[in-house]
Amino acid sequence: xxxxxxxxxxxxxxRQLRHxxxxxxxxxxxxxxxxxxxxSSAGAITYRNTQAGNEEVHAEVAPHRxxxxxxxxxxxxxxxxxxxxxxxxxxxxxxxxxxYPKWHNYALSDRCCLDLVGAATERGMVLSIPIRAEDSRxxxxxxxxxxVPLDEIATLMNACPQAQFVxxxxxxxxxxxxxxxxxxxxxxxxxxxxxxxxxxxxxIGQLITRLGAERxxxxxxxxxxxxxxxLVKLEVLDASEEEKERIRxxxxxxLLGEAGRR
Length: 262
Prior knowledge:
The chain is an alpha/beta fold. The protein has a single domain (3-261), classed as TIM Barrel, CATH 3.20.20. Helices cover 35% and strands 14% of the residues. It contains nine helices and eight strands. The chain has helices at 22-32, 51-61, 81-91, 101-104, 111-122, 150-159, 203-211, 228-236, 241-256, and strands at residues 3-9, 36-41, 68-73, 96-98, 126-130, 165-168, 189-192, 216-217. The chain has an eight-stranded parallel β-sheet. Strand 2 (36-41), helix 2 (51-61) and strand 3 (68-73) form a beta-alpha-beta unit. It is globular, with a radius of gyration of 17 Å. Mean pLDDT is 94; it is low at 258-262.
């Protein structure tokens, strides 16, 4: 079994995405033998009102809730986010949300962000933070949305020890506080592998050694990226089969709770 914690549906403002519908994504998943995927709106990254993207994802995944696990995209600097969060959780059955501070023009330390993290945590929702939406070399010339600094994320982990985070689309963790065994940070975050190396610097292996295999999860970044590289990384990873099974699905299933076991 494989659970992908990092996938998307819908249109992205600055490039054409293939396989960005539920049916298209499921075809990619079938080919790659991925059983379930956490999905959020690619459109909501650039929508002024992210709730429109959440509504689109809700409609897309409705016939496929056994395979596609929807996460909301919430902008805490946008008026009415509290209602959006309630609707996404209670009406749409979304078990987590994604934060885009650099795209939505707020800081992880802002009061509005801390309020959102607290409200989502009270609801038992998982918080996913993409370090980037796409490769900086592919960005539109009118857009300046830098990667989320890892030290800012570490500060948020400390400030919200009861929350549960999944860090996706990231790299360089072993050089940051987030990848250190004796960091003093609460163990309230997992790291997804789609941009990490499994050979050469072997960041995946180093994270397993430092944090434990239970803190590493599988993800692909579909359909911004194809799933094959992430699958190959697991194949060549110097780790036990038990550790690989944790990464493939067990850690994600535990994190997602009932949503990951449907």
